[in-house]
Write a structure and sequence with these properties.
5 strands, alpha+beta, 35% helix, five-stranded mixed β-sheet, single chain, elongated, Cytidine Deaminase, domain 2, 15% strand, 8 helices
Length: 236
């Protein structure tokens, strides 16, 4: 059986049928509690209630918050519009409020994520393939702030337009909810010139990204002694 016990019970009023804000003592109302004692003392349900601001016709804001947490199994990192809209009483506005708040938290509180501003910033993620004897095609998933969400090797072996297919390249970035990707592959020969196959792959990925809404930010060729950015070289 799945464990549904949460650290710091997110349902503080679980057994109390009176969850309307006016029915609570002033010191227990989420906004007043936050102002008096700070956000850290509020439960997840109370913080979510402050964020939502109001409930629905059927549920108070606290009840609605608890329903959202129950639907997400207590994991607010899963708070995406699609999952939130499945909760009765949550419309587009509330779903967007919660999703936007979670993304702001990720961007501004999790500063350990590296930001890719140019090709040079991506090189640390490609160090492992620069001396490989086989060609490795790597994809970095980036969010809207160009922070690295994940780095994956898509293919290993000879590189041609048939082996590197957009569906394999974009499958994981779609799951990551990436806003854009940066691709790279190594040239074991050491040459930093783009081949006709490299250009063809880049064009296919760029067009596929336009359809999917996940922009191809750049395609790098790396070798032991340097790198080539197709974007900075005007090839895309």
């Amino acid at each position: 059986m799945k464990d549904t016990t949460y650290v710091g019970d997110p349902f503080p009023h679980r057994w109390n049928p009176k969850t309307r804000i006016p029915d609570l003592e002033s010191v227990d109302r989420p906004r007043e509690k936050l102002l008096a004692r700070g956000a850290s003392v509020l439960t997840d349900a109370e913080l979510l209630a402050v964020l939502l601001g109001s409930g629905s016709r059927r549920s108070s804001v606290l009840d609605l918050s608890m329903q959202i947490l129950a639907a997400l199994e207590g994991d607010l990192t899963r708070a995406e519009p699609e999952s939130l809209l499945e909760v009765d009483g949550v419309g587009n506005a509330k779903a967007c409020q919660v999703a936007a708040a979670m993304e702001l938290g990720r961007r501004h509180l999790l500063k350990q994520r590296a930001i890719i501003r140019d090709a040079q910033d991506a090189l640390p993620y490609l160090a492992a393939i620069r001396n490989e004897r086989q060609e490795h095609f790597v994809c970095l998933s980036l969010n809207g702030a160009h922070e690295v969400l994940a780095t994956r090797t898509v293919t290993v072996g000879l590189l041609d337009s048939n082996q590197v297919h957009p569906r394999e390249v974009f499958a994981d970035p779609i799951t990551d909810r990436a806003a854009c990707i940066l691709c790279a592959h190594n040239h074991p020969s050491g040459t930093l010139q783009a081949s006709p196959e490299d250009l063809a792959i880049t064009e296919r990925l760029s067009k596929a990204g336009e359809v999917l809404g996940i922009r191809l930010l750049d395609h790098l060729i790396v070798a032991a002694d340097g790198f080539l950015s197709m974007k900075e070289s005007g090839m895309m």
